[in-house]
Here is the input.
Amino acid sequence: MEQKEKRLIRRVKKGDHQAFAELVDRYKNSVFAICLRMVGNRQEAEDLSQETFIRAYKHIDQFDNDRNFSTWLFRIATNLSIDSLRRKKPSVSLDAELPGAEGLALKELLSGGETMPDEQIVRAEMEKIIQHEISLLPEKYRSAVILKYIEDLSLKEISEIMGIPVGTVKTRIHRGREMLRKHMAAFRGEK
Amino acid sequence: MSDAHKKFVSLMNKVLDEEATKEEQRLLDAHIADCSSCRVHFHELRQSADLLNRLVHPQAPLNFTKNVLDKLPADNRHAVRNWVSRHPLYAAMAICALPMSLMMIAARRQTVYRDKNGNGQFILLKMPENRS
Ligand SMILES: [Zn+2]
Here is the structure.
């Protein structure tokens, strides 16, 4: 697997589109997941994901093949997402409230109520709510939380992607988790 | 929150990061058994982590790879090599067509030149189009 990837990258460095297509297929879901959870919008996430791969292709000569390709790629995706968030920041209201009905299933779930809401509805609703809660996190906590929980990466990998020490990654994840806890507690309190 | 509780919150985080020793885990368990505010806090933190874990991992949109490839800058060197290996006949024709078209251009120039000299006016003779 590792060796195959290194061979693919050597071919990409010679301008082989087919080899690059294999790399795109291998990582498109992960890159899309990172971008989607970072910006919370499918269309924007698709544009950012495409841009991530196009940049990777254009700058492949700068990639050191002794390093981890996914780390490098996820770093591009994270940085592009953060840039995009910063560009549109003034128009995004951080106080945006969810409509009242949205939280019902989640409240039921959090409180361990007996009437278990329909699985499908819970899924869709939770998806919306958690995405909303993630989007309320400051971007540096957000990226750490996403890389850990959505991509299931180790603290060490996250520190390499974000270019910060492992200790700082931990702090950011802890703070992110703590903010989410407080928001969720607010849901519970409304019941 | 008192300093004692803060210490336990950092223990909670260690446990959630799966970095707590058995001793630390035991310490937290013992405290939680007695302290309801820490018990609730830990339960809520764990729930936040669970919710994040439940979030579905989305699939990239359809045709994603193709859309990316369509936007890549073409590598000419490679493109030519690829094209030649896929279309050897066209490549051979293209190679033959080059001197042919040069000859035709030369021939056309000569014709125009001759006409100009001969009749004092331009008459462009119909030349066979060079299709390559
Ligand atoms: Zn306590």
In short: Residues 12 and 18 of chain A are 8 Å apart (CA to CA).
